[in-house]
């Protein structure tokens, strides 16, 4: 079960929720205890969106186009720019290489005849107004199985495969992120939409400060406290919080369902640390 603090937005995977007093936002109680409500998938695996580009080396999306250009999951946009075709999100594929010389883009398709046309039904601008058709095969992810552990194992493998694959794609197809806010734009340059709401954004007129992104910007991990087997029936307490490990929420969700956790998360889980009883912890210096 995914739990969400209605005040600060902290996430907890499991039941009962922890009693660690870390809620320190405006409106939180003086005890700093969380106000837990039921959460959803979007809290465990937050969705990061990016503007879909018809031409990845064309001009950047302007501020006036922010409501006209489709925003799709950034991981999907990365796959589209890397070569995966989605009919409702067309993109330009070039048959000749493009070079950047002294900051100037040289497009050889303008100097040589094209082997294939772009198609009469594709326009460089305004394609986002076309009605999208949902693929019945991918409209919903339905697991026809009652084995929760098997589903968790498949989910853990898919998560690791996605992270590894996205990291490899980002080595060739760059992704930009704002240095002030979590905004992400897939492509060699960022957009010009002035929607940055970070600290002192008025001084920048809402413009973003673009820099190279990492996999954590594309798929931000929401870290939660790790629940061991012997802790499954009792909540984590504030007095022992320094002994608890943490995991990305999606990994913790699969782990509690029975999926094995990879060795790369061993240091975060801290399962080699013995958790004392509360009366024992008082004597620890």
Automatic annotation (TrEMBL):
It comes from the Eukaryota. Residues 4-88, 177-263 form the APO domain. GO terms for molecular function: RNA binding. Pfam families: APO_RNA-bind (PF05634). InterPro entries: APO_dom. This is APO protein 3, mitochondrial isoform X3. It comes from Vigna radiata var. radiata (Mung bean).
């Amino acid at each position: 079960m995914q739990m969400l603090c209605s005040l600060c937005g902290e996430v907890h995977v499991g039941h009962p929720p922890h009693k660690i007093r870390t809620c320190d936002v405006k409106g939180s109680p003086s005890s700093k205890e969380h106000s837990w409500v039921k959460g959803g998938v979007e809290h465990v695996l937050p969705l990061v969106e990016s503007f879909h580009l018809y031409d990845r080396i064309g001009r950047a999306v302007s501020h006036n186009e922010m409501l006209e250009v489709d925003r799709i999951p950034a991981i999907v946009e990365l796959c589209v720019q890397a070569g995966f075709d989605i009919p409702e999100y067309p993109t330009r594929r070039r048959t000749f290489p493009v070079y950047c010389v002294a900051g100037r883009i040289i497009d050889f398709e303008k100097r040589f005849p094209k082997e294939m046309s772009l198609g009469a039904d594709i326009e460089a601008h305004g394609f986002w107004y076309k009605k999208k058709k949902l693929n019945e095969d991918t409209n919903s992810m339905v697991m026809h199985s009652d084995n929760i552990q098997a589903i968790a194992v498949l989910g853990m493998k898919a998560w690791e495969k996605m992270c590894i694959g996205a990291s490899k794609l980002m080595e060739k197809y760059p992704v930009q992120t704002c240095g002030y806010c979590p905004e992400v734009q897939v492509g060699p340059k960022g957009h010009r939409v002035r929607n940055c709401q970070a600290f002192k954004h008025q001084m920048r007129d809402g413009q973003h400060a673009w820099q190279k992104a990492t996999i954590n910007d594309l798929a931000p991990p929401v870290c939660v406290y790790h629940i061991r087997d012997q802790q499954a029936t009792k909540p984590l307490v504030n007095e022992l919080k320094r002994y608890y490990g943490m995991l990305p929420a999606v990994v913790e969700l699969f782990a509690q369902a029975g999926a094995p956790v990879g060795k790369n998360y061993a240091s975060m889980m801290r399962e080699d640390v013995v958790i004392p009883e509360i009366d024992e912890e008082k004597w620890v210096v």
